[in-house]
Amino acid sequence: MWLNDQQIIPSAIRRYRKALAASTPRHIVIDGLFDQQKLDSIYAVLQQEQYWQSQKHSYSALYVDESQWHATPDTERFVQRDLWQGYIASANHAQSAIALEFLQFLRGTEFMALLSKIFDVQVTDIHVAKPEINTNFFRLGVRDFVNQHADDSPGREICLLLYLNKDWSNEQGGELVFMGKDDHSVTIAPLYNRCVLFDPSSEGSEHWVKAVTHGGAAAYRYNVTSWYWSE
User: Where on the phi/psi map is residue 19: left (φ > 0), alpha (ψ -120 to 50), or beta?
Assistant: First the structure.
């Protein structure tokens, strides 16, 4: 079982739905949603350098190559981070099996049914051409960034962020910041086994990530990002 049963009992679901209705943007923060021992195994996989590849986006283009990136003004640079490549067959494929299993669980029937219940909307991959590319691990170092943006897209109902940062301290930065409403932004620290779920079309859902600093022993800020659509 990937989920912590105590976090998905009926009273917990009711609490999440109540929090969604009262928040701007529509979001909830769930600590300890997943089994910690299994996440520890994933964390070990993410420390293996060979699985990571640099990813760069501008506001006008995704997957920008180096020549394009150097020609892109700083104000147009949207994302610089690393993308996990463990799903690509390699000599070490067996080592990445548990991480792959978790990504598949996040796109599986059980977990998507849970999301549908919390948000009161039916999410499905029936019309998603490549579901697997919409759920993956990312990491940010001190030179990386995720600038202000919106995750809304036609039919996209839910965004998930799960943080995998052990012993993370405030001095290390890396907080998620929602724009919020009436100059009341919402700041969320990227703590281990903390899951943020939000409606990307809701008011105030534009967001960014504060810079990662040298404030701790960890070299990177790790997370899972997953997007979900309705029919």
Answer: alpha
